[in-house]
Design a protein that fits this description.
Length: 208
Amino acid sequence: MRIVALEGIDGSGVSTHSRLLHARLAGAGVKSCLWKEPTEGPVGRLIRGFLRSTEGVDSDLMALLFAADRLWGLRLGVVERCGGSPEVLVVDRYKYSSLAYQGVGSGLEWVDAVNRKAPEAEILVYIDVPTEVALRRITARERREVFETPEFLERVKSMYEEVLRLARARGVKVIRVEGVRGGVERGIEDVQGEIAERVFEALGLARA
């Protein structure tokens, strides 16, 4: 199973582009499955409750919960939902989100350690969007989550740079895609076209 993880700060379009990439892969005849974190499993439901809370969230606790939810997904959830092991698993956020988000409060080294059982992705697509653009998109939503504050997202964005360096050092193919170019937001089709082309190439598949 080849894991393709899509990452970025909240408001960068990770969920949208994960769904579109999966559709392109499936349309090309690839046995692809779309997976989202937090999952719909028992631990994932607990995490979602914390994320919607207006109270503070303990970073260490969240790191452990996300790690447990991730292993549940990899060992049980994916097989059940995907009807076996897919050729390509497109993940709407993976352990790199934990390293960035919980790494801010708990330290990258410790969060990395509790996620060692989760294999590295083959490809990590990082959608790079300025914090102010992400916040504008988040503000347009009906509901916001506990992590979606300007100060915190800025720290997460900086932490992602460390996470990307770590992933590269471990042999992960990192694909950085700009969501804004020349000060102008790129359209969804434009961004997805670049993501699909570069992912297909990295996987050794015919052009999307």
